[in-house]
Every structure is written in structure tokens, then in C-alpha cells.
Amino acid sequence: MKKISDSTVRRMSQYYRSLSRLIEQSVQTISSEKMAQIENITSAQVRKDLSFFGSFGKRGLGYNTVELKTKIGEILGLDHQWNVAIVGAGNIGRALTDYTEFNRQGFFIGTVFESDTSKIGTQCNGVDIVDIEKAKINYKKKAIDIIIIAVPAKHAQAVCEQFVNLGVRAFLNFAPISLQVPDNVVVKNENMSVEIESLSFFLRNG
Amino acid sequence: MKKISDSTVRRMSQYYRSLSRLIEQSVQTISSEKMAQIENITSAQVRKDLSFFGSFGKRGLGYNTVELKTKIGEILGLDHQWNVAIVGAGNIGRALTDYTEFNRQGFFIGTVFESDTSKIGTQCNGVDIVDIEKAKINYKKKAIDIIIIAVPAKHAQAVCEQFVNLGVRAFLNFAPISLQVPDNVVVKNENMSVEIESLSFFLRNG
DNA sequence: AATTGTGAACCTCTTCACAGCT
DNA sequence: AGCTGTGAAGAGGTTCACAATT
């Protein structure tokens, strides 16, 4: 497949979510122009994004919402259950165990790893909190696909390396630090400080 | 000032965080090349980003970490306290009241707004949970600069409009939906579903 | 000798504009 | 007539490469 840009993938994910909403509202067809309005982008962008993956529309009519959602789901790999583990049972880690949006899209949070012995052995929203030292055995048993890093910045790199060594290739990083990983591993950052500081910049200069 | 790209602002924010870490480690000087390694980018990118705002380095030597951190702090507006309110006392909203990274950088969370009467009047990590109906009076009293939206997608647009009408110009949106706002208002999205679905795409196609 | 600051080259992503379908 | 799909043009962001400076 041709190289797909990150921005295209992100927008595909947004189309997917908007389509879910449209289907709930019993909308059966949508044009690239309408979709563009929902996402605050241009209609050419919508059509171009979709065109990387195929021809899903009907000229003169638009796109069938249910069909397009299914197609995008397949493209993004959401027709599949992904096993996820969180590292860190702090505020963020615990909040994520109850983030229903993840479960709804096929991301199953099976474990929270922790090093704090007072938390190990307990549960959080029904998810077992497990000793990080048992990561290896747990990794095999649960077939973990994705690790969510929710530990302080100073431990994030070490945690990441530990799971890279076990074979994990996908990380969602909440620690405010840039992780160093091999080429075949992907990290997506959820850096709340960066976003709020961008707002600060805007308020000062915008 | 010349138009600064979003990516440059985000990287400035990352440099700022890396500089804090370097200063803690008593590093006094850093070259663009070293900084680039930390951030996984090129040294030309580091120099170009900084050059939009001035000349902060010394040729042959590099950048003084303390000076550069101060400069970037001013550029980003972090030499100032910003008053922040969260809307929604769910998992994410509550977790954010205890996100120390925010306080450390001058973002002061003064209020959590809620509509659920059983939560109103209580506190979360020392922050009052206030009736959303009292937003107007509270907005004036607290001089709110930034609103963090942590409500379900279906309420996010209405919440946003309510505060836009009160005069808020900066939003950090955790709801997985694209918000429609006037030109003079900025929204930054923290869309965890988008990031994890990008990982799914990578695992399937990468 | 080392490293910055920057115009120019390069590359990537977005938008235009229209042929081609329905 | 209306809307998609797409090659070409345009805009914007990144990297190169080197003169300038310490």
C-alpha cells in the first residue's frame, strides 16, 4: 500500500466516529461536503483521504453511511479485538480503565501494571492491578497488542523499553516526554501539557 | 508577528519540558543537535523553530539552558497564571484535577462544573464542584481563561457554546467530536480514540 | 573547531478544478 | 444536475548547506 500520512489516518478515525453518530440519527447517505462541514475541513480533503483506500461513494449521491463506516472500520483494524494493558495505576491510568469509548471500539483493557505494592492485587473498574515484575508472564497470557504508558516521565522510557523487549510494537504515551524506540515500533503521544501550552500561546499572541 | 505554525508551537512546548529536565540535571548548555536527539527530530528543525522568535544561541557554543527555558516560557505565556475550569466531573475531569503537570506550569484549576446534583457541592482533590447553571457568575468571579471540556460527546458542543457566549476563547476538548467555534476562539483536541485507532491502523498495516 | 541562523531547495500535504459517473 | 475521484497546482513545513560568529 502507498504510504498513508498520519493526518489522513487521524481524519479517518474522525470520519468513523462521525459516521457512528450519523447512523444513530438514521442518516443513510452523506456527501463529502456535509462530512467536511462536520469536521471543519474541505470536501476535497475528505474525498482525497478516502481515495487512498478505494472508491466508496456514488457520483451524484454521496456515501452510504453504514457501508462507509464498515469500510473505515476494516481499514483502521476496528473489526478486531486489540488487547491493551495500562502501565501505572495513578489518576490517568485508573480513569482510562473506565473510558468506555475504548471498549466500544474493540480495545480491551485486560491489565493494569503497577509497582506500588499497596495497589497490586486490587482491582480498578474490574481490571486487575498486577505487579509490573510479572509483565513477562502476563504479556504472553494476555497476548498484549498495545501498551498505554501512564507513569511519571522519569519512568516512561524504562517502561517502554521493557515492553519493546517483550515484543510490543504499539504504545500510547501519556508521559510528557519523547520516547526513543526502534523503527518497527510506533508511539502515539497524548501530551496534555503540549495542548494546554498551545492554548496559552494563542491567548498571549493570537 | 509572522504566522507561527501549530507544529512549531507544539515543539516549543516540548523543548520547554526537555529544558526543565536538563536544568534539573545541572546541564548548562545544549546544542541544537543534542536537543534534536532528545526530541527525535533534526537539528535544523530546532534552529528554525527558535529562529521564528529570535536568536537565543551562541555560535560555536549552543544555547544556555536556563536562558532558553525562560525565553520559551515567555513566548508560550507560562510566566503568567492562567485560570482553568473543567466541565464534567467524570473520570477524566476528576483525574485532571490532580494532574500536577498543569499546576506546575501555571495552569490553575479553580472549578469543576457539573450538572449531576449528587456531585454538586462536593470537592475533588480540593477543587469545588459547582453547578453548571452557575457558570456565568463563576466565570466573572474566577476570570476563567481556559475551559477543559470533559463531558460526553453529545453535550460537548452545547457546553462549548455556553462558554464562548460568556467570553472564553480557549478550550481543551476531551470529547471525541469536532467542535464548531467562531474564528477568534481556539480549540485543542485531546482525542484518545484517534490516537489509539492510529495504533490499530499501524498494527494492521505498518 | 564548533555551532548558530537562514535563504534556497525540497518534499509533503492540501486545495483546485474538471472529467467521469450515476 | 449532482457529486465523486483524481491529476495538477498551490501552500506550507522540513531539510540542506553554508556564511557568520564565538
Strands, helices and their partners?
The structure is a homodimer of 206-residue chains.
Chain A: H1 6-24, E1 29-30, H2 32-39, H3 43-51, E2 63-64, H4 65-76, E3 82-87, H5 91-97, H6 100-104, E4 107-114, E5 123-124, E6 127-131, H7 135-142, E7 146-149, H8 153-166, E8 170-173, E9 186-189, H9 192-205
Parallel strand pairs in A: 3-4, 3-7, 4-6, 7-8, 8-9
Antiparallel strand pairs in A: 1-2, 5-6
Helix pairs in contact in A: 1-4, 2-3
The structure holds a DNA duplex (22 and 22 nucleotides).
Please give a structural write-up.
The structure is a homodimer of 206-residue chains. Chain A has 206 residues and is of the alpha/beta class. The first copy, chain A, contains nine helices and nine strands. Chain A has two domains: 70 residues, Winged helix-like DNA-binding domain superfamily/Winged helix DNA-binding domain (Arc Repressor Mutant, subunit A); 113 residues, 3-Layer(aba) Sandwich (Rossmann fold). In chain A, the strands form two sheets. Chain A has a seven-stranded mixed β-sheet, sandwiched between helices. Chain A has a two-stranded antiparallel ribbon with strand order 1-2. In chain A, helix 2 crosses helix 3. At the A-B interface, helix 1, helix 5, strand 8, strand 9 and helix 9 of A face helix 1, helix 5, strand 8, strand 9 and helix 9 of B. Chain A binds a DNA duplex (22 and 22 nucleotides) through helix 3.
